[in-house]
Design goal:
Elements lengths: L5 E3 L5 E3 L19 H5 L1 H32 L2 H26 L4 H24 L5 H22 L2 H5 L5 H30 L1 H20 L15 H12 L2 H17 L5 H7 L5 H20 L10 H21 L3 H29 L5 H29 L2 H22 L1 H5 L10
Antiparallel strand pairs: 1-2
């Protein structure tokens, strides 16, 4: 039985009912990102602000680690190994982390993982202050940070559906992506300023301090116990989550589309070569290419107001992935830098819109008791797909050219979208569920 002012969605989650389940009023809110989740839920607002600062701090640490590893080794291979030490633990522990999130109070779990992540940031700072100059220690700390994130991320992903009603989830997803892309731009820029002014240790210290705000946001949340008493974490619980996805074609199709876009259409590994061969530039051009999708993501998230009123969400995902693939293919054709940057920005905006709808569909259609495990699978797909995409792009470029790799990857992504649209017509027809009556 729900209390006054509460409602229950189709997944069995109790959330605060709103008295404003209608589309945003006329004016700028029709175009710009919907801020109602931040206004209506103090808990969500504190969580969002804390997450924004924590993400920016994490980006500072990432830049600091890359700089420190290169200063120790002067080896690009050694720097590349940092990515491997990040990806392997996330993939290895992502599924188990999701099962743990479905077994315990998620708020308490995130408090523990966030606290430990803060300790790791302090350890980064200490080794920099003491000038230990130990490459293995940097790798160990990076792997430990990634392992904790593999548990923290799926648990955090279960908070929003409990704090907001279903009709606010698309807006919340857009706000989350705005936060992510903003921190991706600001964090590295701030890291460069701080490291130049006060050294590597200062960047690590700033990251540790940002956790204070993040921990405060989580500490002020209500209890988040697993519904129905939770489930015992471990391989059996993981398999239960995978079986759920196997019998949910809509969710399975979402993850297939994500893999299609990231494996075939991920151009990051091609940027250094294309910056030189296509655009005749150096390090600044490479940095601009890497920043372009994030800038497009910020613009796409900031102008995401209309997406909260889209009901054909399955079709919207297909269109957004099509925009991504077409933009990447077009990027491979052009030799004009401003056009290439523009196309990458459009790709980033398309990715944001795709993620908004994918996140909403997953949250609405996943029972609360399984949200941690499904979030763990999402984490593995989200981290594993781009890494495989880097390999695919590099291999094709080695046998052909970087331009051919970008073009063929974008076109392969478009073919994948067409195949999915034909093979799973129910996904194309998928519509957002009507918001339940309040009260």
């Amino acid at each position: 039985m729900t209390k006054p002012g509460e409602a229950v969605d189709a997944a069995g989650t109790t959330y605060p009912a709103t008295t404003d389940p209608v589309p945003a009023p006329p004016g700028r809110r029709r175009v710009f990102v919907d801020l109602r989740p931040l206004r209506e839920s103090p808990e969500y607002r504190r969580l969002w602000v804390g997450g924004l600062l924590s993400k920016a701090g994490s980006q500072m640490t990432s830049v600091a680690v890359f700089i420190q590893v290169y200063s120790l080794t002067h080896s690009s291979l050694a720097v590349g190994m940092v990515g491997l030490t990040l990806a392997v633990p996330l993939i290895a522990f992502g599924l188990l982390g999701g099962s743990l999130a479905d077994a315990v109070d998620r708020r308490k779990l995130v408090l523990v993982t966030s606290g430990l992540l803060a300790v790791v940031s302090v350890a980064f700072a200490v080794q920099a202050v003491l000038d230990l100059r130990q490459l293995w220690l940097l790798y160990v700390l990076t792997a430990l940070q990634s392992s904790l994130s593999a548990i923290d991320t799926p648990a955090r992903g279960t908070f929003t559906p409990r704090l907001l009603p279903p009709e606010r989830l698309p807006a919340a997803a857009a706000l989350s992506l705005l936060s992510f892309h903003f921190s991706t731009i600001v964090g590295p820029l701030l890291a460069g300023v701080v490291i130049a002014a006060a050294g590597l240790q200062a960047a690590y210290v700033v990251d540790a301090l940002t956790f204070v705000v993040g921990l405060y946001g989580v500490a002020r949340l209500r209890a988040m116990p697993a519904q129905s008493g939770g489930t015992r974490p471990g391989p059996r619980a993981v398999l239960e989550g995978l079986r759920f996805l196997r019998h949910e074609p809509i969710l399975g199709t979402l993850m297939l589309l994500d893999l299609n876009a990231t494996i075939f259409g991920m151009p990051h590994a091609l940027f250094p070569a294309l910056a030189q061969s296509h655009f005749g530039g150096g390090a600044r051009t490479i940095g601009l290419l890497y920043a372009a999708p994030a800038i497009g993501g910020v613009v796409g998230a900031a102008l995401s107001g209309p997406v909260t009123r889209v009901r054909r969400q399955g079709l919207a995902v297909l269109v957004a992935v099509t925009v991504w693939g077409a933009s990447i293919a077009g990027f491979g054709f052009t030799h004009v830098l401003w056009l290439g940057v523009l196309l990458l920005g459009v790709a980033g905006a398309g990715d944001v819109i795709s993620v908004v709808f994918r996140s909403t569909i997953v949250q609405v259609n996943t029972p609360d008791a399984l949200r941690g495990r499904v979030g763990g699978v999402n984490l593995v797909v989200g981290e594993g797909g781009p890494r495989l995409g880097d390999v695919e792009a590099g291999l094709v470029a080695a046998f052909t050219s970087p331009a051919v790799s970008a073009i063929s990857g974008g076109l392969a992504c478009l073919v994948g979208v067409a195949v999915v649209a034909v093979a799973v017509p129910a996904f194309t027809r998928y519509e957002a569920a009507r918001p339940p009556a309040s009260g």
